[in-house]
Amino acid sequence: MEKSCISVFLLLVAVSYALAKDFTSKNDGKRDTKEVKETKPRLPQTLSRGWGDNLVWIQTYEEALFRAKNGNKPIMIIHHLEDCPHSQALKKVFAEHKEIQKMAEKFVLLNLVYETTDKNLSPDGQYVPRVLFIDPSLTVRADITGRYSNRLYAYEPSDISLLYSNMQKALKLLKTEL
Amino acid sequence: MEKSCISVFLLLVAVSYALAKDFTSKNDGKRDTKEVKETKPRLPQTLSRGWGDNLVWIQTYEEALFRAKNGNKPIMIIHHLEDCPHSQALKKVFAEHKEIQKMAEKFVLLNLVYETTDKNLSPDGQYVPRVLFIDPSLTVRADITGRYSNRLYAYEPSDISLLYSNMQKALKLLKTEL
Fold this sequence. Notes:
The structure is a homodimer.
Chain A: E1 4-5, H1 7-19, H2 21-26, H3 28-37, H4 61-71, E2 75-79, H5 85-96, H6 98-104, E3 108-112, E4 130-134, E5 139-140, H7 160-171
Parallel strand pairs in A: 2-3
Antiparallel strand pairs in A: 2-4
């Protein structure tokens, strides 16, 4: 019996495990069981998760990086949680904001309920909601921040105009290839 | 302006780029543009992508690894493409097969239209459709194969019973923790 042991991923998982612990206790195990045991048919899970059903959402971070580089488009990554009221509130205004939805088309879009292993995506820690931009040169735009000094990449619903102008900022690419 | 350059991912992306080239030419760039430019509202993209809308599908490989280890459940990974007729045909019988859909609940489920950077997921190359199992000990079950010697992890619609028995095989874990 041939087995390919993916020991490198054991390490990754160990790291994720440590990082994702409190996230998990809130969310993971419980939800999994609950959803599987539901007997009524339910709506299929979407990639948009309500952040804009008419937009194209990318499934994975790696794919987003590839598409950003390839298509010379910045990435917008939204970290959120389904059962976090702050995330839900931001999502509502984000999804209903026509200009934002329109401008979002210019981005490679990713929303994640699970942290990646890339520490560059948590310049000041892991929290939700957290919105980060990545330039097509694959540089995290740590300079594009919200208004809270303790959580630089957090936005409240009342900050939606700031988020809009930050999206404009992110569209001005750091390096433009001709 | 503070920038965190994610150079390690440049390498990853370079690798993915080389590996994903023919995949891309079929799929990526073109589809992206097309979807964004559609004017009619369309159904939101789903995580199931039609492989079983009532099942819980995991978004990313890292999350799947974490959940497998944590929940002591094997992973079932389906690599496929939306515009590949073989993938579509297998998907149809998979989604309509009641016993398979039922048994699938026992797995951490992932369907991917984009290759990961983990070479253990392509023991005999990258092709679609390709179905792999991973034990909760995070060992790729390279021993669980279909009937084609040139593409060990490919299944035709007529192989659906073999896929079903392979799922049963994968549920017999390599190591059971007490």
